[in-house]
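cron nightly-structures :: item 1 of 1
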Amino acid sequence: MKNLKTTLSILLTTLLSCLIFIGCDFSKGVKKDLRTGLSFSYNGFIVQDVLLIDPANKRMPDNKVNLNTRIAIAAIGLNNYGLKDGKVFPGTMLLVTDKKGTPILKADDLFAGDQGHLPAEASELRGAITIARPMIAGETYHVKMHVWDKVKADNELNIEADLVVQ
């Protein structure tokens, strides 16, 4: 009888812990695409996927890019924003550096001065990158994209990838 009470007590404690955990607004994770090398981590946001997008608007199979093309980093299924007057207010920083760490492209906030969006309009965010001079064929460039929520300060998404220019 004592074993049954102990087992029921442990089961009830575990069930209550799970319910409390599910009831919390908790989302955190890390993911890496082994084909492209793109990695991302998120906290607070819910993210379906993050992809490198080629000039034909398709998922890139690797991290090789051609000079004089335009690619993008796309965060897909991004939600759990904080709301202000029914709108969401994302912030997005985009940085491309050469092997010495020198910035080639730097945008502190692609949404600076923005008046907000309906949540569905901000569920996919893209950072576009033009692969052109001063980039040089044969070199590798590091890309960082940081997305944050201007209403819910704990929400953030950090993305990194290396691009090999051909």
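cron nightly-structures :: done
The domain at 27-165 is CATH 2.70.50.60 (Coagulation Factor XIII; Chain A, domain 1).
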